[in-house]
Amino acid sequence: MSEISNSKATVVEDCRGVLHVYNDGSIVRSSRPSFNVPINDDGTVLWKDVVFDTALDLQLRLYKPADDSAGSKLPIFIYIHGGGFCIGSRTWPNCQNYCFQLTSRLRAVVVAPDYRLAPENRLPDAIEDGFEALKWLQTQAVSDEPDPWLSHVADFSHVYISGDSAGGNIAHHLAARLGFGSPELDPVRVRGYVLLAPFFGGTIRTKSEAEGPKDAFLNLELIDRFWRLSIPIGETTDHPLVNPFGPYSQSLEAINFDPILVVAGGSDLLKDRAEDYAKWLKEWGNKDIDYVEFEGQQHGFFTIDPNSEPSNKLMLIIKQFIEKHLGKVRVMTREQSNISKQASSMHCPKAVLNCNCNKSFPFDADNISCNFSEPATELKFQTFKNKKNMFKPIKWLQDQAVSNELDPWLSHVADFSGVFVLGDSAGGNIVHHLAARLGLDLGLPSWHRFGYWRLCLPVGETSYHPLVNPFGPNSKSLEATKLDPILVVAPGSDLLKRQDRGLCKEAQGVG
User: Fold this and answer.
1) 286/425 same-domain check
2) Which residues form the active site (predicted)?
C-alpha cells in the first residue's frame, strides 16, 4: 500500500472502494475486501497457503476434502480469482467460500493462486503469474520431496484450469500458450478449462455492453476503469491481451485447444464477448467448446451467492465437464438439465439404448415406458409386448429428435446423431432384429443373446423361428441387408458361446 503524497490530492479512479488512484499518481489499497461476507468454514475442507514465487512473494491457497479416506487420487481444479486485474485475492471471503464449494462438491484438490495486480503491475504480469503457478505445480509433480499435503491426494495427470472474470482471461491465455495436452507442463496434464464470465474487451462495443443496465454489478463505467488501469500504458482495449479477436491479435485458428467450458450470465454486460469467444473457437475446428448461459444472471453470480439455484446448477455442469474428461461420461440428472434453453449447449457424445429393463416415461399408448437411469449414459426400455413394439422406442426417440417441444431432460444433453443400441441376452436378440430392420440408419453394438424360448416363442413354434435363429431354414436371407458394425460379446463359459460364434461366422459369410 502506498501513501498519499499530497494531502490535497483527489481520487481519480475508485475500484469498489478497495483501490483508490489519486491525481498525483499515488495509489492506496484498502486491507478490507469488497465482499464483506462471513467465511463458511465448516471443517469439511482442509486448506493451507503456500508460496509459489519467492521472488515476488506470491502465494496460493490449497484446498482438499477433509475426508479423503477413499484413497483414490483427486483431480486438481485451479481457480483464478477475478477483479478486473485490479482487485481481488485468494484470501477474500467470497473467493474462499467458492473454493470450499468447489472442493467438496467436485471432490477435487483446489488451487487458488494470487497474481500481481494493476495498476502497480499492468498486463501481462498477471498472466505470467498464472503460468508460474502452473510451473510450481509441475515442480511438485516431479519433485523427489513434494509437499505430502498435496502429493498424497492430487492426480497431476488430471488438471482443470478455471478462471473467474479476469481469471477467465488468464485461463484463456494459458490455454492458448499450452495448447492441446499441455506438453510444456509434463507430467502435469491439463484436461480442460472453465472460463467463468471471462473478462474480454474491445474498442467496438458489443450489444450487451452498449445496452446493458447502468446499475449492473459490473457496469460499463467499471469495465472501462479496470481496463484503463490494467492494460499497458498507451494501448487500447484492442490489445491482444484484452481482445483475443482484435485487429492486432494473432489468429487462434491454428491452435488446437483442450476442451473449454465457457459460462456467462444472461444479464452480464460481457455476455456477448463470452458467447462470441466460444462460437469462434468452435467454428475454427475446436469441437470440444461448450457455451452455457444462465438467463437473468449477473456477472459473477456464482461467487456472489454460491448457494443459489443457478450457482448449484453451474456446479453440476462443471462436475459433468470434469467427469466427461476423466473418462466418466454421464448424462445430467433431471435437476441438472432443468436449465433454460440458453444453457443447453452441452451434449453427451452418445445415447445408448439398453434393451432391458428404473424413472419411467411413457412413449406408447400401450403403456410401454422407458427408464432414464441416473447417472449412467443410457436409456433403459421395458420389455416389449410383441415384435411390432420392438421398434417403438426407436421411433419415440426419433420423435424427440424432431419435436418442437421435446423433453428438455433429454434434449439438453443427448446427441441424437450418435446412438448405440445395447441388448443383453434376449435384449441382444431384439437388437439384432432392429439392426436388420434399420440397416445403415443406426449403429448397433450387441450383447450375447437367446434364452427362455418355451416361455416367449409364439405358441406352436420351435427354435427355428426367424425371431430365434436368424439363419434358420425359415428365416429370410440377410445377404441383401447392409448392417452397421456389430459387436457380439460372449463369456467363455456361456452355453450360448458356440451359437454366438456361429452366428458371427454366418453374418460374415453373407458379407
Assistant:
1) no
2) 165
Q: Are residues 138 and 23 in the same domain?
A: no
Total domain count, the chain: 3
For residue 225, give the nearest of 17, 24, 1, 6 by alpha carbon.
17
Q: pLDDT digits over 49-78, tens only?
A: 999 999 999 999 999 999 976 678 999 999
The residues that are catalytic are: 165
Contact 267, 298 (CB under 8 A): yes
Of 130, 129, 103, 114, nearest to 60 (Cα)?
A: 114
Going by C-alpha positions, the residue among 398, 450, 452, 397 that lies closest to residue 427 is: 450
**Residue 9 sits in the same domain as residue 143:** no
DSSP secondary structure letters along 374-443: SSSS-EEEPPPSSGGGGGHHHHHHHHHHH-TT--HHHHTT--TTSEEEE--BHHHHHHHHHHHHHGGGSB
Given a contact cutoff of 8 angstroms between Cβ atoms, the answer to whether 423 and 393 are in contact is no
256 with 374, same domain: the answer is: no
Pair 215, 126 in one domain? yes
Is there a contact between 429 and 423 (Cβ–Cβ < 8 Å)? Answer: yes
CB 156 within 8 A of CB 185: no
**What pLDDT shows up at residue 157?**
96
* Distances, alpha carbon 198 to alpha carbons 202, 211, 299, 451, 494, in Å: 13, 19, 10, 57, 56
Calpha distance 35→40 (Å, rounded): 14
**450 near 425, Cβ under 8 Å?**
yes
User: Residue 373: is its pLDDT beyond 70?
Assistant: no
Decide: 235 and 201 in contact? Cβ < 8 Å. Answer: no
- Give the domain extent around 425: 351-509
Closest-CA residue to 253 (of 176, 155, 338, 160): 176
Which domain CATH number covers 238? 3.40.50.1820
Of the candidates 406, 456, 401, 454, the one whose C-alpha atom is nearest the C-alpha of residue 426 is: 456
150 pLDDT band, cuts 50/70/90, is very high
Same domain, 264 and 357: no
Cell numbers at residue 242, please? 484484452
Residues 148 and 276 in one domain: yes
The Cα 238–Cα 203 span in angstroms is 6
Residue 342 falls inside a structural domain: no
CB 269 within 8 A of CB 219: yes
